[in-house]
Amino acid sequence: MPIEVRKPTPEEEAAMKACPTWEKEPSEFPWHYDEPETCLVLEGEVTVEAPDQTVSFGPGDYVTFPQGLDCTWKVKQTVRKHYKFG
Fold it and tell me: Of 8, 13, 60, 81, which residue is most buried, by most CB within 10 angstroms?
């Protein structure tokens, strides 16, 4: 299953605003998803490189990552996002 980047529905956006927030300064790091993650990007610019896909996203994007994904996060501008696992 690929990483999906799109704009959220109003209902998805409202639901994500109740979720915790995560922030990370510009950096590069490997990441493995033990469970699926959904996030709503509030600010920043990120590129995520996976073996068969590279995606970039920023403010207003609704991003879903599949369980089992191994990837590298490249934070170009400090990112702040709401997130939900599972």
Answer: 81
Q: Is the pLDDT score of 83 beyond 90?
A: yes
* Measured distance CA(39)–CA(65) in Å, rounded: 9
DSSP 59: T
* 3-state secondary structure labels for all residues of 4-53: EEECCCHHHHHHHCCCCEEEECCEEEEEECCCCEEEEEEEEEEEEEECCE
Q: Is the pLDDT of residue 28 over 90?
A: yes
Give whole-number Cα distances, 6 to 29, 62, 77, in Å. 23, 5, 19
Mean model confidence pLDDT for the chain: 97
Burial class, 1, CB count within 10 angstroms (exposed 0-12 / middle 13-18 / buried 19+): exposed
